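Need a sequence for this fold. Nothing fancy.
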């Protein structure tokens, strides 16, 4: 179990990011959780809300390798994962690795790429490897996909398949800054922004990740996680509230979350507790993280979508219906 201290090993990384990013404490916290979990993150928000800038700042504050791919409708799978190049002299094919071979991969406007490109990312995101021809190549450790997308603009975009959405640890929604925060953004843009320095490396992150994995998780809290996830599954006999009654909201779902969501919630809760300098997970940690873990894994019925219901509203009802331990 990690030692109880007032700060955590990634505090320096957080401070460097705050030199550029104004406000957004939840966003920065979830990114640090994802780094500890080696989990992929999807950032959704309107243009101009510093989604790309946040990811680039996180990369600049570390010694990790960083690559950026601007997703476009004419992008090819080989532009992401690489391809085999024929050598006419040796009469052999040589692998040419693509930009996916990095530690931090910024997939900018990921929903602008067609399905072939999205499918090329599936193996990399889940297996941490890329197959070129008959040979598979391991990706660097750690490897994280930090993707952005615009929720409003639909022209020239391709909805991400459910299989790929399920591979993201978090889906984070970025909102407008407050008035005071926007004033500070203008001040820093007027020549008052500090330089970001790399303060962490791969060894420190791997050590911190191992310590986070040793955070204690009581079986009662683990069972609470499972009850929450199972309650989203349509037709599941265990999808009930604390008194055996079906919770109000399940009828709004046509597809619930898989065990991958339970695993994501468990590892994220441990990392969240670690960043809070605690040696154990609290039920409140689960409540805090559940929307970010589930919002991209739940499919609403067509009737619910027509009525303007959101997944966040369904998750709020779920948390009200399933009692905490």
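Here you go.
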């Amino acid at each position: 179990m990690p030692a109880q201290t007032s700060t955590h090993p990634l505090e320096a990384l957080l401070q460097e990011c705050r030199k550029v990013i104004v406000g957004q404490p939840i966003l920065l916290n979830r990114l640090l959780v994802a780094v500890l979990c080696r989990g992929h993150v999807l950032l959704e928000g309107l243009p101009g809300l510093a989604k790309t800038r946040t990811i680039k700042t996180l990369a600049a504050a570390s010694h990790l390798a960083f690559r950026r791919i601007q997703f476009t409708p004419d992008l090819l799978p080989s532009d992401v994962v690489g391809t085999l190049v024929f050598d006419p002299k040796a009469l052999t094919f040589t692998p040419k690795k693509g930009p996916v071979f990095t530690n931090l991969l910024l997939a900018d406007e990921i929903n602008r790429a067609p399905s072939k490109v999205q499918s090329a990312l599936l193996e990399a995101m889940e297996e941490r490897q890329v197959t070129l021809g008959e040979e598979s190549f391991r990706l660097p450790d750690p490897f994280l996909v930090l993707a952005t997308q615009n929720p409003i603009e639909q022209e020239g975009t391709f909805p991400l398949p459910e299989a790929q959405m399920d591979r993201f640890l978090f889906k984070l929604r970025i909102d407008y800054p407050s008035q005071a925060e926007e004033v500070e953004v203008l001040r820093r843009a007027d020549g008052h922004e500090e330089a970001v320095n790399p303060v962490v490396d791969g060894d420190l992150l791997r050590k911190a990740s191992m310590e986070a994995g040793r955070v204690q998780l009581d079986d009662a809290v683990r069972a609470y996680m499972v009850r929450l996830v199972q309650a989203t599954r349509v037709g599941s006999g265990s999808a009930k509230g604390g008194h055996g009654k079906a919770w109000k909201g399940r009828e709004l779902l046509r597809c619930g979350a898989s065990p991958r969501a339970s695993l994501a919630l468990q590892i994220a809760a441990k990392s969240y507790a670690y960043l809070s300098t605690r040696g154990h997970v609290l039920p409140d940690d689960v409540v805090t993280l559940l929307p970010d873990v589930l919002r991209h894994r739940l499919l609403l019925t067509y009737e619910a979508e027509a009525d303007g219901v959101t997944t966040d509203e369904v998750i709020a009802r779920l948390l009200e219906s399933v009692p905490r331990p």
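For context: The chain has two domains: 11-208, 215-321.
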